[in-house]
Design goal:
2 domains; alpha+beta; SH3 type barrels; 410 residues; Fumarylacetoacetate hydrolase, domain 2; single chain
């Protein structure tokens, strides 16, 4: 099947993708939309035109609130039904003129955070990343802590500082301890990025009941790229004994477009082998990972370069295991929860997903043509994370990119 939308095929945002986002046009109200090619198809306008009649019961809270929240709460049957209806509209040339009234060029719209983030949890699930960090900070000790291969380590982030791609990031202030002298207060000097993949929860769960790995698709709606900005010097001083706090909570950037899990069916692959075998609640009868090709681009001054290409397929702990672990104690899921993979890194130097690793803690600056020596982020730097995957029609889909520019500390 081919769509009547010009330019959609081969764009990374074709019929087999249709990621969801929230847009506004010419300063107007916010509208739920899907992206098709270089245009946004407004679901609010399709609903007004009657083209979505009958697809969902009591549909106004889904289509007319300018948020993805209403759809997230409807569950997988509704998600699939709406996706099928949208695909049918986009190949039906008999309704092309009418549906075309709901198309808005991306160049003419603003994008917004697509849903209300309820809780935010960040994991630490790349063995390559965890090993690199261990060697950087504990060169004479064991790289991995003793619990690392028994459970997906994670921490609770700050949902209120999750921001949409394109939002500037202000360099955080905080306490640092650069040497044996007393701690000092001021702007972070070791501001970093973390290339991650985030998962958006739709259906909630009952508090006191664990969600098994097999129930992942019943609860998780879709995927976003995510940048977990990190102030490494603030983190080094504060994290003992309770872990990241102010070093992480100032900003987390996510894509404007949420890729439905259903669009990534063809990207599912077998995960890496796990040794030792995990405990029973972490064992999945049908284990899977996602083969996502990611890239980290740094722009400084007039120059830009891709400095890393982390492979998501090599993540040790799977999304299903992460979901099972974060609920095994009875913690409930809420509609809009966001959980992130942790930094994605591969075994190669050019596959490391953070500047901490790429510069080996700042001791071995990365030399990049056009950018010079790169340690950590400077004011004015722009970071862009991109990703792509195999789509169900054999093409390549492009995950919504996530970009942010560093502004000076106040």
């Amino acid at each position: 099947m081919t769509t009547w939308v010009t330019g959609a095929e081969g764009s990374g945002y074709g019929l087999a993708h249709l990621p969801y986002g929230v847009i506004s046009h010419a300063g107007g109200h916010r509208e739920l939309a899907v992206r098709i090619g270089d245009q946004a198809l407004s679901l609010a306008r399709l609903h007004d035109l009657g083209l979505l009649d009958g697809v969902l019961l009591h549909a106004t809270p889904v289509f007319d609130t300018g948020s993805l929240d209403g759809l997230l709460a409807r569950g997988p049957q509704a998600w699939s039904a709406l996706r099928q209806r949208l695909q049918a509209i986009l190949v039906d040339r008999d309704v092309a003129d009418m549906a075309g009234e709901a198309l808005l060029p991306l160049a003419e719209v603003a994008t917004h955070l697509a849903w209300t983030v309820a809780d935010y949890v960040d994991f630490y699930s790349s063995e390559n990343h965890a090993t690199n960090v261990g060697h950087i900070f504990r060169p004479d000790g064991e790289a991995l802590p003793p619990n690392w291969k028994h459970l997906p380590i994670g921490y609770h982030g700050r949902a209120g500082t999750v921001v949409v791609s394109g939002t500037d990031v202000v360099r955080p202030n905080g306490q640092r301890k650069p040497g044996p002298e007393a701690p000092v207060f001021g702007p972070s000097r070791r501001l970093d990025v973390e290339v991650e993949v985030g998962f958006v929860v739709g259906m909630p769960s009952v508090q006191g009941s664990a969600v098994p790995t097999s129930a992942f698709r019943e609860h998780v709606f879709g995927v976003v790229l995510l940048n977990d900005w990190s102030a490494r010097d603030i983190q080094a001083w504060e994290y003992v004994p309770l872990g990241p706090f102010l070093a992480k909570s100032f900003a987390t950037s996510v894509s404007a477009w949420v890729t439905p899990l259903e669009a990534l069916t063809a990207a599912r692959i077998a995960p890496p082998a796990q040794d030792p075998a995990p405990l029973p609640y972490l064992i999945d009868a049908d284990p899977w990972a996602l083969d996502l090709s990611l890239s980290l681009e740094l722009s400084r001054g007039d120059a830009s370069a891709v400095i890393s290409r982390p492979p998501f397929a090599q993540m040790y702990w799977t999304p299903g295991q992460q979901l099972a672990h974060l609920t095994v104690n009875g913690a409930s899921l809420r509609t809009g929860d966001l959980f992130a993979s942790g930094t994605v890194s591969g075994p190669g130097i050019d596959q490391r997903g953070s500047l901490l690793e790429l510069s080996w803690g700042g001791r071995e600056p990365l030399t990049v043509e056009g950018l010079g020596e790169v340690n950590f982020l400077e004011d004015g730097d722009t970071v862009t994370i991109r990703g792509e995957a195999l789509a169900t029609d054999g093409s390549r889909l492009s995950l919504g990119h996530v970009v942010g520019t560093i502004r000076p500390a106040p």
